[in-house]
Design brief:
6 strands, alpha+beta, about 160 residues, about 50% helix, coiled coil, 2 domains, rod-shaped
């Protein structure tokens, strides 16, 4: 995992790294508190205050060290030079949340309409069934009336 660190020179002239931030995801970093974030490594070739990117393994052993200047400049170029500020990002988060809520409401409305349409379809089907039964009853009644008329005519 990558960390942003700053070189601190101790009284004995030994270099020490103070971890300032830790990478949480590809484009997400978290600032670290100052407690217990010092690493003793051979960093004597770096001047006091130099910012470094340090890759640590799970047991906090240094895997890679590189100067952070180019990385910091890249971050500035990608995000700050085009005006992406925390306020702009917060506005985007709020806009995305409003969009999500709007989609949720529209989805709920569509589900409600689908349920209404299904209920109406069932009502129509029930009416059709009732009409069919009434038609059959009327036809049966008509046949009975014809039969009784035929009996009366022949008698």
């Amino acid at each position: 995992m990558w960390h942003l660190a700053q070189v601190k020179i101790q009284d004995e002239g030994k270099a020490q790294l103070q971890l300032l931030a830790q990478q949480k995801a590809e484009h997400a970093w978290a600032v670290l508190s100052e407690e217990a974030n010092d690493l003793c490594i051979e960093a004597d070739s770096y001047a006091e205050g130099t910012l470094l990117l340090v890759e640590l393994n799970g047991s906090r052993q240094v895997q890679k060290v590189q100067e952070a200047t180019s990385w910091i400049l890249e971050v500035i170029e990608q995000y700050l030079a085009v005006g992406i500020t925390p306020a702009v990002l917060q506005e985007e988060v709020q806009r995305a949340e409003q969009w999500r809520q709007s989609l949720t409401l529209k989805s709920q409305e569509l589900q409600r309409r689908a349920l209404e349409m299904e209920a109406r379809r069932e009502q129509i089907q029930e009416l059709e069934d009732n009409l069919l039964q009434e038609k059959e009853q009327l036809e049966s009644l008509a046949d009975q009336i014809k039969a009784s008329h035929a009996e009366e005519s022949s008698a």
